[in-house]
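Dear colleague,

As promised, here are the two records you asked about, laid out in our usual form so they can be pasted straight into your sheet.

NAME FIELD: protein one
SEQUENCE, THEN STRUCTURE:
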Amino acid sequence: MKVMAANKLSVTMIKSKFGRLPRHQACLQGLGLRKINQTVEVLNTAENRGMINKIAFMLNVEEV
């Protein structure tokens, strides 16, 4: 039986999207982030984890 630590992650954008690679901007859009200091809650899935890992230098991530 698998036990998930948390179902959701709280993701906050701390750096600007301007001047970033198009792939990084697409990851921000996929996570639903538009503005600096905006926080969204996303499900803790492999897809979301992959986007978070790609742009980890731009985000603060906490388990909810």
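NAME FIELD: protein two
SEQUENCE, THEN STRUCTURE:
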Amino acid sequence: MLRVRWCNIIVANVHAPSEEKRDEAKVSFYEELDQVFDHFPKYHTKMLLADFNAKVGRENIFKPTIGQVSLHQGSN
């Protein structure tokens, strides 16, 4: 937790299970993340730094963000 003059900021850094992991592991991760966030003080500023293993595909909707190139055919 960072203590600043005007407010408290809680920074959480997480790395989600990859797509290849079992569904039980992914469900367990997100349930635990919910529980952790539920225990943070309500009025503190919360920042989540995360790698959620998102695959951004070549769909037209993403082209303004990623351009014409993507490593993945489809998104997850």
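A couple of things worth noting about protein two: Residues 18 and 65 are 23 Å apart (CA to CA). Residues 23-39 form the longest helix (17 residues).

Best,
R.
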